[in-house]
Every structure is written in C-alpha cells, then in structure tokens.
C-alpha cells in the first residue's frame, strides 16, 4: 500500500472526574510499540508509514481504550496518502527545521 501520514486525536469517554491522560499515554505507547515513525503534538499525534499498518495501529489504540474501561472512543483522524513520492513528515516540515 502507499506511504501515508495519519494524524490522530483519540478521545476516550471517561467517568466524571477521571483523568483522560493515562488513556492517552496508553494510546501513545501503542504507537511507539508499533515501530512506525511518529511525532507527538499538543493536540494530536502524527504517524508515518504504510497505510494498512497505520490503520492497524488506530484499531489497536481504540481496542486498548475499551480494554482500559472506556465505553466509547472518538478518534479524529487526518490522512494524507501519496502513492507517488510517498508522504513524509520530513518533506512537509523541511521548511521548518526548528518547528517554528
């Protein structure tokens, strides 16, 4: 499949007063364990790799939220697929090497 970038903001439903951060930490740990290139941002995390692999990571993240006790999960996704040159964070950010 084509090289892709997938940005995700995962929002598990939690009990009133429960902190969502441990859930988000678990989701990021799943991304890290998958071996795909990724970059954590303040509102979402961007992954880079084969589209099928990235979709599989999203499925694993959602499953982990349910296993952790969340009754529902909203995953907001942005997806760039480039079958030609291949999508990459490096290409899109080369103009901004310092993140500025």
From TrEMBL:
Residues 7-91 form the Thiamine-binding protein domain. It holds the Pfam family Thiamine_BP. SUPFAM superfamilies: MTH1187/YkoF-like (SSF89957). It comes from the Bacteria. Belongs to the UPF0045 family. PANTHER family: UPF0045 PROTEIN ECM15. This is MTH1187 family thiamine-binding protein.
């Amino acid at each position: 499949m084509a090289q892709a970038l997938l940005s995700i903001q995962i929002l598990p439903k939690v009990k009133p007063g429960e902190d969502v951060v441990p859930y988000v930490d678990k989701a990021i740990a799943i991304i890290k364990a998958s071996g795909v290139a990724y970059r954590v941002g303040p509102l979402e995390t961007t992954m880079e790799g084969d589209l099928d692999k990235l979709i599989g990571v999203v499925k694993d993240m959602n499953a982990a939220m349910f296993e952790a006790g969340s009754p529902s999960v909203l995953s907001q996704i942005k997806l760039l697929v480039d079958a030609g040159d291949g999508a990459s964070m490096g290409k899109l950010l080369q103009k901004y090497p310092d993140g500025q």
